[in-house]
């Protein structure tokens, strides 16, 4: 049996823009993706703290150290610049894998610069 649990989270980041004409996805600073262990094109859930929207999309890497968190395509209608969001990736684990499991959480400042990386135990 496999269980689906939180794999990684970028917590309380700030939307820096939106691009309704892009095909789709969320652009995320490559440094944040690396620190969280989230891959380019990986499925993520985005929760907008400002309006309560929750949606699923996939990641696109933005330039490293740019601070970019940008909604693209249809998702651009689900938030505006300045909204605080949480970006979460999930993984499927066997019961054996869960014995040494801990999700990774990246905390950021108001400019989406990493402050701390935690692993919940």
UniProtKB/TrEMBL annotation:
Is synthesized initially as an inactive proenzyme, which is activated by self-cleavage at a specific serine bond to produce a beta-subunit with a hydroxyl group at its C-terminus and an alpha-subunit with a pyruvoyl group at its N-terminus. Substrate binds at residues 57, 73-75. It holds the Pfam family Asp_decarbox. InterPro entries: Asp_de-COase-like_dom_sf, Asp_decarbox. Coiled coil: none annotated. The modification Pyruvic acid (Ser) is found at residue 25. Its cofactor is pyruvate. GO terms for biological process: alanine biosynthetic process; pantothenate biosynthetic process. It is an enzyme of class 4 (lyase). The active site is at residues 25, 58. Its main location: cytoplasm. The keyword Lyase applies. It catalyses: L-aspartate + H(+) = beta-alanine + CO2. Pathway: Cofactor biosynthesis; (R)-pantothenate biosynthesis; beta-alanine from L-aspartate: step 1/1. GO terms for molecular function: aspartate 1-decarboxylase activity. Binds 1 pyruvoyl group covalently per subunit. CDD domains: Asp_decarbox. Its EC number is 4.1.1.11. It is found in: Cytoplasm. Keywords: Autocatalytic cleavage, Cytoplasm, Decarboxylase, Lyase, Pantothenate biosynthesis, Pyruvate, Schiff base, Zymogen. It comes from the Bacteria. PANTHER family: ASPARTATE 1-DECARBOXYLASE (PTHR21012). Heterooctamer of four alpha and four beta subunits. Belongs to the PanD family. Catalyzes the pyruvoyl-dependent decarboxylation of aspartate to produce beta-alanine. This is Aspartate 1-decarboxylase. The lineage of its organism: Bacteria, Bacillati, Cyanobacteriota, Cyanophyceae, Nostocales.
